[in-house]
Amino acid sequence: MISKTKVGFVYTFRHYRNGALLETIEQKNLMPGEGINHMLGLLVGGAQFPTWYIGLYGNAYTPQASDKMLTFPGLAGELSAYAGDRKAFVPIAVSGGTLTNIGNEAEFTFDANVTVHGGFMGSHQTKGGTAGVLLSAVQLPSSRNFLAGDTISVGAGLEISPL
User: Whole-angstrom Cα distance, residue 112 to residue 124?
Assistant: First the structure.
């Protein structure tokens, strides 16, 4: 008998203004079918991506199990008011069944006022790009407003333990 298990990342968002921490939010994600299928495919020799990237979105959008990278940036309203492309997810060494970038969080410093509704992890670096795989998407419990010059750091982690 096959039993289904829920799996996903937990995201930690930290909001900074002038170097001072204003707020920390921890939120569980949704792994869409595209991400789950990719992850399972790796177990049987599927193609691996060398780097994953974190992005942010601004629409009042609730991630769906059917989401795909092909349409997610447009539906969710990927934010672009920061320098560079999506930020690399740089994990520390896998240990004890845990994969996380805590200590190497992705940082975004905004160059305009923005409203953030959530974040996501995909296999393609280009901001607004629709290529690749959507591994994970997370909606904040409520929208957060950021001023130009504010920074958000995004940590994400996944832990798998034996039953």
Answer: 24
pTM of the model: 0.94
- pLDDT band at 4; cut points 50, 70, 90: confident
Domain residue limits at 142: 10-159
Handedness of CA 141, 12, 115, 123 (dihedral sign): negative
Residue 91: which residues within 8 A CB-CB, separation 6 or more?
A: 99, 100, 101, 104
Would residue 138 count as lying in a domain? yes
Do 105 and 6 form a contact (C-beta atoms < 8 A)? no
Angle at 138 between CA 121 and CA 125, to 5 degrees: 20
Answer whether residue 42 shows pLDDT above 70: yes
